[in-house]
Design a protein that fits this description.
Blueprint: H1 5-13, H2 17-38, H3 42-58, H4 69-88, H5 108-112, H6 116-124, H7 128-139, H8 144-151, H9 155-186
Length: 187
């Protein structure tokens, strides 16, 4: 059944299962994409996904129609991912990426030859702290002050982790590009 967004919201506020299922089906893939960007593994992404949807359903009464409903949901998913990060950050590897260092400027050709899935895979390989800052800044559009408050780090640390994440991604893109070039020359 196709419901309007307003019908979905009202049905979910009334705790009606068919509306909750329809909401889940309508927004599930977009919200899972958010979870995958922030999680270290697909299992963690699923945990975040389910926790966030529970929060959406529990807090439906809080949505008053101001702003985009999808944006309201995304905010819950991002915050759930950040909370998950805080709860589990002792388990994550926090090593420095010294080898990312100073990188030569990458060619526009390198970026144009990689598809979105490959880029998301490279982002997923970033160490947890770098990935959190990169996602919040580059994808969600938060500023360093907001990121520092969300993650409990200084603005300088946020800027540093973003710079290191970008350097790591550049290095990975260049490595990806050069390995493709070598394969083309040999094939």
């Amino acid at each position: 059944m196709n419901f309007t967004e307003e019908e979905l919201i009202e049905g979910c506020k009334a705790n009606k299962a068919r509306y909750q299922e329809a909401l889940y089906n309508k927004y599930g893939s977009v919200m899972m994409g958010i979870c995958l960007r922030y999680a270290y593994t697909s299992f963690e992404a699923e945990d975040i996904f389910h926790d966030a949807f529970i929060k959406v359903f529990k807090n439906m009464q809080a949505y008053k129609g101001a702003g985009s409903f999808e944006g309201w949901m995304k905010h819950i998913f991002v915050n759930t991912a950040i909370n998950h990060f805080h709860k589990n950050k002792k388990r994550y590897y926090h090593g420095d990426l010294e080898d990312a260092g100073d990188m030569p400027q990458s060619d526009q050709d390198t970026l144009s030859q990689i598809d979105a899935d490959e880029l998301l895979d490279l982002i997923a390989r970033l160490p947890e702290g770098y990935r959190m800052v990169f996602n919040l800044f580059a994808i969600e559009g938060y500023g360093h002050k907001e990121i520092s408050e969300m993650l409990g780090i200084s603005e300088g640390t946020s800027k540093s982790q973003l710079a290191k994440a970008r350097a790591y991604l550049k290095k990975s893109l260049l490595k990806h590009h050069s390995s493709d070039y070598v394969a083309e020359q040999q094939g």
